[in-house]
Each structure stands twice: as C-alpha cells, then as structure tokens.
C-alpha cells in the first residue's frame, strides 16, 4: 500500500477574486510541489462529487440548499465578509468534500495506507449551518461522518494544526463523545474560539492555544505532551488531519513561527498514533497556508512524512 493523493481540476475554478488570500494559485503551488520525482509513487486519483446525503450528516439541509442554490452564474457572491463564491465554487466545494470521503474509502478498504486531499475551498471554519473563514462545507467533518455511516467506525479523531482554530469542526463534534477534535492554533487570532476550557462532552475536545511567536518548541511540545497522550487515551479507529500550513513563519496571516520540519514532525507523530490504534489509517486534507513558497514546501514535507509513515 502507498499514499493516495486526491485532487480535482474543478477546485482551481473556485475563483475568490483579485487579492483574496485563498486563491487558486495555492492549489497550483501544492500540486506543482508534488509533481516531483520524490512523489512518483503517489497513487493519484480524481475527487468525486460529494452527495447530498454525505453533506447533511454534518450540515443542515437548508444550509446545503442555500449554498448550492446561490452559486452565481457569473461574477462573485459574498457569503460573509471574507467567504466568496463564483460560478465554479459549487462543484469545487462538492469535490473538496467528496475527496475526503473517497480518501476514507481508500484507507478503510485497504486500497491505500493513508491519503492526502489537495483541495479547496478549505473546510474547518464551516459550521453545520454557517459558512465562514473561506469555508463552505466542512470537508474533514463530512469525511469523519462518512467513515461512521459507510464503514461502521465508531471513534474518529481529527487533529488540526492550522494556525486558526477550526471552530466549525469543533461545533460539529463537541456533543458526540465518540468524535475527538484536537487543535493547535495561535491565540488571540481569528475566529476567537479554541480556549482550553472548551472541552466538549467527556473531554472530546482538546484545544492547545499558542501565543504569537511561540515557535517550534512550543508546537512540538503541544503535539507530544498534549495531543498524542489524549489520542492514545481515545484510541481512534481513524486519524484525520486538518492540514493547514499557515502557522509557517513566512505566512502573512499569522505569526506562530513554524517551519516545514515542524509539520513533518507532527505528521510523523500522528502516523505513529494511527499505527498503534487504527491500523495506520490516516486521511489528511488541505486547509490554510497563504505564502505560496512556504505552502508548497510544507505540503511536500507533510506528504513525504505520510509516505514514510
């Protein structure tokens, strides 16, 4: 078994307009980095469309209808102050969520050891009934519920190392003790959630907020001393990663101060947890990262660690 890469050209057609940080060039940079001889063994697949049934396991049906029903025929529509839709956004969002479901299928059936979904728009800020923070559907949460509904899994964990707290994933998970969400993120920072005292039910939520400029040591300590022991106690049947790379020291939207080596470190640690409890099953999906050079290098380090894990 190898690592599967799932993406789709439709994700490039989600046009956020001139000057928007979550732009198509982000995905182009990631795919170009993965089009290197180092990654020739990747199993490359196209993302399918998520079904409505898959989406409504996480999102309110009225919300799904609202998003898909308001995709513009031309131009742009503002969903909130920084979340944009264009004519290509509907298919892109369905492919992004569908990619994570397909990745779950691949790792649970043994077709792949682990998988990375190079997709956009990102998802971890999307709440069950609200789009925000560049996100339309919560791709990783849709994938987690797909693992339960389609493959009979009970305990699914999502670990989020995006520099921004994944308020949407937390909102989708916090009342279900068999879903676990852990996040490292800069605080204070958008969206203003993710305090340590937000613990869900049965401590199924673990937030490790880090101050601006915290750097590598604090991040690695959070992974080793906070998140890994909690995951070992939870014993997940599937490990999922919200892989945001905007905690990189070169990123323009935050100032946590990490390097690509830190993302590789976290990925290796999570693969180790997956080997202990989940037969090695890991599904990762792209979230943030807005400096193109740093994003490309960080995604490549992440995928290389998956291939080695």
Please explain how this structure is put together.
- This protein has 309 residues and is of the alpha/beta class.
- The protein has a single domain, classed as Arginase, Chain A (3-Layer(aba) Sandwich).
- The protein has nine helices and ten strands.
- The strands form two sheets. Strands 2-1-5-10-9-6-7-8 form an eight-stranded parallel sheet, sandwiched between helices. Strands 3-4 form a two-stranded antiparallel sheet.
- The longest helix is centred in the N-terminal third of the chain and has 20 residues, at 89-108.
- It starts with a strand and ends with a helix.
- The model has no long low-confidence stretch (mean pLDDT 98).
Notable traits:
two-stranded antiparallel ribbon, 8-stranded parallel beta sheet, alpha/beta, Arginase, Chain A, 15% strand, 309 residues, globular, single chain
Summarize the structure.
With 309 residues, the chain is α/β, with parallel strands linked by helices. It is built from nine helices and ten strands. It has helices spanning 24-33, 52-55, 61-69, 89-108, 139-151, 167-173, 215-234, 260-277, 292-308, and strands at 3-7, 43-46, 77-78, 84-85, 114-117, 156-160, 179-186, 205-210, 238-243, 282-286.
CATH topology type: Arginase, Chain A
User: How many strand segments?
Assistant: 10
How large is the share of residues in beta strands? 15-25%
Low-confidence stretches: none
The CATH superfamily turns out to be Histone deacetylase domain
Count structural domains: 1
Structural class: alpha/beta
Give the N-to-C terminal Cα separation: 11 Å
Helix content range:
25-40%
Number of helices: 9
Order of helices and strands: EHEHHEEHEHEHEEHEHEH
Described by strand count, sense and barrel closure, the largest sheet is: 8 strands, parallel
CATH architecture: 3-Layer(aba) Sandwich
The order of strands across the largest sheet is: 2-1-5-10-9-6-7-8
Query: What is the CATH class designation?
Result: Alpha Beta
What gyration radius follows from the Cα positions, in whole Å?
17 Å
Q: Which whole number gives the mean pLDDT?
A: 98
Coarse morphology:
globular
């Amino acid at each position: 078994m190898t690592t599967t890469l799932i993406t789709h050209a439709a994700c490039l057609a989600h046009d956020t307009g001139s000057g928007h940080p979550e732009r198509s060039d982000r995905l182009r940079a990631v795919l170009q980095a993965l089009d290197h001889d180092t990654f020739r063994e990747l199993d490359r697949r196209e993302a399918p469309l998520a079904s409505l049934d898959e989406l409504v396991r996480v999102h309110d049906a009225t919300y799904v209808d609202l998003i898909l029903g308001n995709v513009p025929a031309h131009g742009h529509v503002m969903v909130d102050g920084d979340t944009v839709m264009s004519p290509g956004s509907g298919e892109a969002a369905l492919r992004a969520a569908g990619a994570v479901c397909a990745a779950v299928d691949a790792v649970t059936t043994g077709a792949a050891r682990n998988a990375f979904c190079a997709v956009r728009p990102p998802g971890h800020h999307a709440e069950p009934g609200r789009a925000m923070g560049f996100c339309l559907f919560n791709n990783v949460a849709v994938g987690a519920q797909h693992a339960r509904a389609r493959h009979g899994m009970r305990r699914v964990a999502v670990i989020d190392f995006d520099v921004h707290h994944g308020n949407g994933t937390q909102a989708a998970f916090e009342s279900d003790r068999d879903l676990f969400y852990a996040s490292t993120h800069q605080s204070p920072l958008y969206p203003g959630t993710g305090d340590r005292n937000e613990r869900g039910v049965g401590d199924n939520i673990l937030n490790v907020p880090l101050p601006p400029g915290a750097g590598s040591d604090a991040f690695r300590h959070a992974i080793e001393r906070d998140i890994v022991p909690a995951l070992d106690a939870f014993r997940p049947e599937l490990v999922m990663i919200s892989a945001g790379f905007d905690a990189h020291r070169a990123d323009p939207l935050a100032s946590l101060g990490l390097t690509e080596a830190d993302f590789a470190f976290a990925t290796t640690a999570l693969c180790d947890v997956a080997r202990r409890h989940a037969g090695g099953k890991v599904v990762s999906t792209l979230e943030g990262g807005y400096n193109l050079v740093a994003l490309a290098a960080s995604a490549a380090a992440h995928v290389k660690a998956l291939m080695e894990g």
